[in-house]
Every structure is written in structure tokens, then in C-alpha cells.
Amino acid sequence: MGNVLLKLDEERNRMTLEEFYNLDLPKGTLAELIDGEIYYMASPRTIHQTISGELYFLIKNYIRTNNGKCRIFAAPYDVQIKDDTPTVLIPDISVICNPDKITDKRCVGAPDWVIEIVSPSDPGHDYIRKVGLYMNGGVREYWIVDPMKKVIITYRTTDSGFDTTIYSFRDKIKVGIYEDLVIDFAEVDDVISTLPI
User: Fold this and answer.
1) CA separation for the pair 8, 11 (Å, rounded)
2) Above 90 in pLDDT, residue 113?
């Protein structure tokens, strides 16, 4: 969901976490740090925000109804996957079940479940860069929601690596980190079908 706009010079190679957190960015500017390179993020489109809002509501309602311990956060909320690497991401939705990972400013450590909604400006950001970061970083479940292709790709960790499944916007998707949560994506699709393209 972003494009590289700033690279450090070849001698320094990459920005540190401290340098990133000390950046004086204009108010409202969203940026991620991936392996020491900063990626500015474009403002999300209406369809992006609608999908995010619908999913947030469904997941939040499930957690609250079931007296769940997990917390859900919508972007912008920083996720520092590992404390020893210069990478800070802003997932569209993060579900974090270990309260020790939640600080007053960010999540330090891998969320249990991450959802990214693909931006037409840079689909490779979610499809390529972030898959490895999330899955190698310890995220148990990662969903890529692509409004342009109307598909959802799920990655779930297993004992031997991870499983990948592709769904349509009319499918019901069983959430891997919960035993009885199913997202009926047709409900989300019905809402976005009324939006201007």
C-alpha cells in the first residue's frame, strides 16, 4: 500500500528504528519502514475504507460477544514485528492476543492475525513484500483482500510452514485463529457493490 520515496545513501544502507521513530513527518503522513527503507502510504480509497470498516466491525463484534482476550486495531497502528530489525508496518487490521505485545504506542511482536487491503497503486507491497515479513515474523494468519480482483488470499502457519487458500468475495471464510468465527464475504461484497467505482 505504498511506494518507496526515500532511500538512505549507499554508505548508511538503512535507517534505524530510532531514526524512523524520530522522523518529523508532516501531520497525517503515514509511513512504514521495511528493512531500513521508508515507504510512504497513499490515502486509502473509499472501497478500501469500507472493506476495512466492515471487517473491523465483524471481528470486533465477535471478540466482544465471546468475551475474547484478543484486541483488534485498525490502521493507523504501528506493528514492530521484531524488536531487533528496522521494520515497522501499519497493517489495515491487526488482531493481537498477547497483551504483553501492546505498548502505549505500538505492537512490539507479531500480531496473531493481520489483514491487508490491496491498494491499486502498489499491489506488490501486500502480495510480495509483506507476505515474507508477516509469515517469517510469526504472524499466525495473514489475509490479503484484493478489491480489484475480488479475491481474498489467506496464509496460515502450520507445523511445516504455511497453507495458502484463495477465496472469492462471495465465499464464507473460516478464521484460523478462532474455532467458530466465519466471515461471510458476500455481506461485505453487498455493501461495496453500492459504492462509486
Assistant:
1) 8
2) yes
